[in-house]
UniProtKB/TrEMBL annotation:
The keyword Transmembrane helix applies. Residues 401-411 have a biased composition (Basic and acidic residues). InterPro entries: ATPase_NBD, Extracell_DNA_Util/SecSys_Comp, PilN. Residues 372-411 are annotated as: Disordered. The keyword Cytoplasm does not apply. It comes from Luteibacter rhizovicinus DSM 16549. This is Uncharacterized protein. The chain crosses the membrane at residues 221-241. Residues 372-400 have a biased composition (Low complexity). Keywords: Membrane, Transmembrane, Transmembrane helix.
Amino acid sequence: MTALQDASQLQLDRLRRAWRGSALPGFLRWWGGELSALLPVRWRQAFAGGERWYVLERGEGAWQLRRAGESLSIADAYDTDTVDHRAALLARALGECDPADRRIALLMPAAQVLRRRLVLPVAARDNLRQVVGYDIDRQTPFRAEDIHFGVRELGEGGPEGRFVAELAATPRASLDPLLDELTALRVAPDRVDVPLGYQLAGVDLLPPTRAPRRVDRRRRLNLALVAAIVLLLLGAMAAWLHNRQVALDTMRADVEAMQSDAQRVKALRQRLMDSAGASGFLVRRKSESPSILPVLDELTHRLPDDTWLERFTLNATGQIGFQGQSPQAARLIDALKGARSIGEPSFQGTIQADPTSGKERFYMQAKALMPKPDAAAPAKATSAPAPASASTKAAAVSTAPKEDARAHEAR
């Protein structure tokens, strides 16, 4: 467990050195100073925080407590008073500051502290105290077990691959009695330093084993606030992503609904096009197919009154076939010439005489002609060679089956 603590402490020391060596702390201090200058004085006093250093110095028969950077003492604890009285006096003087911000430095006389400048390799920066502790017998006239020492890195530039540090050491016999006396007064110093005017020199001779362990409640609160901010930020991001996903799902549902509607419209359009194509096909076929009424009307007007038909056919290709009897069947070709709806008349087979009726039996073929659109004149405009009424020809056609039956009976 100790090795793990030492490794974590080493990593923390590296991080602290990297932070102090960067330009960010100076920028933040400058930025904070500029922002605080914009606040009213009362606000600055109300929100003032940070470390406030107090200096304890052993004088002639008394402990003197003052603020760092000031010359006047705020409390004097004389040796003639009892320990409880002196402890209460110091506690009352130190009570003006929040314990989380209060820092106490024990000042040692400069004559009792040995200070030396060291030039060390950069590799010693990661574990500076341990490296200097191995060489303390050579750097000081004391043995390592007889002194308390502290080492710090100076900001001065050194030779390439090296850096400048400062070693401060004092005999245990001078420091330990003072620390024991402060322990009796219920005062735990955060640093053992050397005076530099009314300020602190910056060295630390306090043994690590006697350093106070502080519970920084503000740091815990700040960490909790940072954790809460991170959680809220993650929650906001998750809510944003959820809202985006809901909107995306809604858009997808709308798109799918539109796609289904589009498919239905496409199917209806296809059905409409198919229906239009089918109806157009029927109209086209109807327009292209020969009509039977003009053909019958043409035959009615052009065939002689003494000629009747027993059979009439008209297929989809326009082929006409009709069979009947006429006194002079050979003249029917001339009668059908010039017809508008009948063309290419010809006999099929030979003309035979019917002994029952005394007429000639014939079978003719022709081709139905489609009238042109610009020649939509009525069929009556064409003059027939033999005058006959439509009713007479219709009667002849209607009586054709009866005559046909009589002819079969005669045969």
